Amino acid sequence: MKSAGDHINLYFDLYWNFKSQIILKELPAGSRIPTIEDLHKQYQVSHGTVRRAMELLENEGLISRKAGLGTFVREDVDLPMWVYDKSIEEIYSVLRNLRIEPICDGWVESPARIQAIFREYKDAHCAPMVYRIKRLTISNRDNRKRMITEIFAPGWVVEGIDFEKLRYSPVYETVAELKGFKAAHAHEIIRPWICDKANGELLGVVAGMPLFHRTSIATDPENRILFIRETLTTANILVMESDLE
Fold first, then answer.
1. Global pTM?
2. What structural domains does the chain harbor?
């Protein structure tokens, strides 16, 4: 198993691997967790490491054991730290003060967690493939204030748009300017998170540092999702945003 960082215990790394999947609904409620033996072979860690990780998940109320059946993600898991609504203009007033550095982009098969969000919305329209943009944004005022974003947009939204422009510009403003699609509402979920090694290198923080994971959903007046934006931010980013708003 590849550890998030040399100083993070393997059992905690495995625990966080599963917790993040449960938070994002990659492992939805009712999903069966592999056996200790299967996890031992899959992640190449000791049985004791697997047991300790599973104990953490169980103590936190994320999984439960069913005699004779196995271990499953609980049906009543409720993990968001808080949920609030804000205007799309408020969200992008912050982005105008940030420098965007693209990491990668292209058409991808819509991840399970993104498909799950689309299914929650009435009249949702999403093909199996979505356009994904991953980028690093850095405060022009303080290089230490950074966030990583992944944006998922359905084909009908980005069709005909210059992708080079999307890589360096706020998606909502670009889509509104070039195609006339207007977002009427933004729904945002903020969750506690732990930084892994790869994202820590981009953010300039150590693996294991507490972060916030933010999922923003922008919809048009017909309640169609224009895009879904996932963000990893440090606490400093949230303070900066509060000040700017």
1. 0.71
2. 10-73 (1.10.10.10), 82-244 (3.40.1410.10)
